[in-house]
Amino acid sequence: MTPGPVVSGWLASADDSSMRVIAGNCKGRRLFSPHWPGLRPTSDRLRGTLFDVLGDRIEGVRLLDGCAGTGAVGIEALSRGAAHVVFVERDARAVALIRRNVSHCELEDRSTIRRGELPRALHRDTAPYDLILLDPPYGAPDIDAILSAAATRVAPGGLLVLERARRAALTPVSGLASLRQVRAGHSVLEFFGPVDDSTALTE
Q1: 50: enclosing H helix or E strand
Q2: Which of 3, 79, 120, 155 sits CB 3.0–4.6 Å from 26 for a disulfide?
Q3: 43-194: CATH number
Q4: CA-based angle 175:193:57, to the nearest 5?
């Protein structure tokens, strides 16, 4: 499927993109990248670090890729065996980009793509998630609202992972306990679990 003329102006060719799927069934597949300012895709290196920590926990999970951007994180999860991924993104251009990348990797049957603000989307979707991955814009003013909404959707034994700037300070999130932090350059991956299940992630 060829994107329309407007969408084409937003995308770099997958052949020219430095983004790729790192492992799994879609390993090596290059992804379309954003061609406009303001969208900060998670780097291949940081994505690799995230999935190294998660290991085989990714297999068979129902996953939320919140503030999904390019969709690269959720697509990586699908490639590695996640059962289903719900992508939520508020930018119409990014939603078009996610659709293009999911189609390019032939993962439509295990994907749901929604446009909207994450707290509102989660208010409508009451089902729990085994794994929630959040990558809001660094310095986003609504980060507390995003985390609070996401915290209510973590399944028992589940995990929430937040990518944030190292310099950012977080307000404690009701219902979640911080289990681990992994620093990479100017970014931090922070892993949370339900307060009554603090053994959800081991070192």
Answers
A1: helix 44-54
A2: 79
A3: 3.40.50.150
A4: 150
